[in-house]
Amino acid sequence: MPDQTRALIRRPDRYDPEPNRSYEEFAKHYGCAILAARPAHPRDKPKVEGSVLLVQRWILARLRNRRFFTLHELNQAIGLLLVDLNQRPFKKLPGCRRSAFEQLDAPALRALPTERFVISRWKTVKVNIDYHVEFEGHFYSVPHRLVGARLDVRVTAALLECFASNQRVACHAVSTVRAGFTTAPEHMPASHRAHLEWTPAKLIAWGARIGVSTAALVTWQLERRPHPEQGYRACLGLLALARKYTPERLEAACTRAMAIRAPTLRSVTNILKCGLDSQPALFTSAANPVIEHENVRGPDYYH
């Protein structure tokens, strides 16, 4: 029977107060019922208030002039006075507090739960457009269908759980990496999941199946870009072109892009749009006859 303090009661009410989730879990774990006193009515729990007053008078007051140097020493002194207090006879009832406990309370006590109570924290969060929720600077994925929804997050020392309409929809190990992401593949849309499956080695192998020039262009993207993510996205763009154009046209466009030293996705895309992949190859002897001149070294010089 607690007060309706904000630390325990989420929504105070005179008749039907609502405890917070952690306090409710605590009571359920130990098999207790929560009957909060009415706001500003401490007399709803007279036994609690009376016990506090009793301890102040018969224990704290008797120790007020003593000085203690260790916590153990203080606990020993309190323990002696506590035994004396529990054995003091009642004034209006037979027996004492110790005998009343043994007769009434002890038979009704149950054994403690076999598992320790796990302290948890609850928080209401909104799912971001990237189907992740944020907790203490880290982002955790939830099913993408819940974008924009508000979820209840339960966090323990090792586990983070997300609940929608009291149903658990996601579970992750807690991470302390700030600005990091923990993403489960099953939470992704089908298109995102397909992109996740493409590794650099798989991209290069795909390019080799199209042709030598495509493989060379994919390798250039993965190795020469300032940031790996840039090359990865460009390769995914080539995959999109492969779904729109035939392998022969894509290989010819990559060959032309490598020949003009512009191995970029934009260059390949423009070549395909303009139909330049069907034109004669560049730098052939027929299209560019060798000019004999003393100032022209020719291609053999560079070998």
Tell me the major beta sheet. Answer: 4 strands, antiparallel
Strand order, sheet with most strands: 3-6-7-8
Helical element count? 10
Low-confidence stretches: none
Give Rg in angstroms.
38 Å
| Share in β-strands | 5-15%
N/C terminus separation: 92 Å
Compute the average pLDDT.
88
User: How many structural domains?
Assistant: 3
In oligomeric terms, what are we looking at?
A: single chain
Order of helices and strands: EEHHHHEEEEEEEHHHHHH
The share of residues in helices is 40-55%
Number of strand elements:
9
Overall 3D shape? rod-shaped
SSE-based structural type = alpha+beta
What does this structure look like?
There is one protein chain. With 303 residues, this protein is of the alpha+beta class. The chain folds into three domains: 9-108, no CATH class; 121-188, no CATH class; 198-278, no CATH class. The chain contains ten helices and nine strands. The strands form three sheets. The protein has a four-stranded antiparallel beta sheet with strand order 3-6-7-8, with no helix packed on it. It has a three-stranded mixed beta sheet with strand order 4-5-9, with no helix packed on it. It is rod-shaped and about 125 Å long. The mean pLDDT is 88.
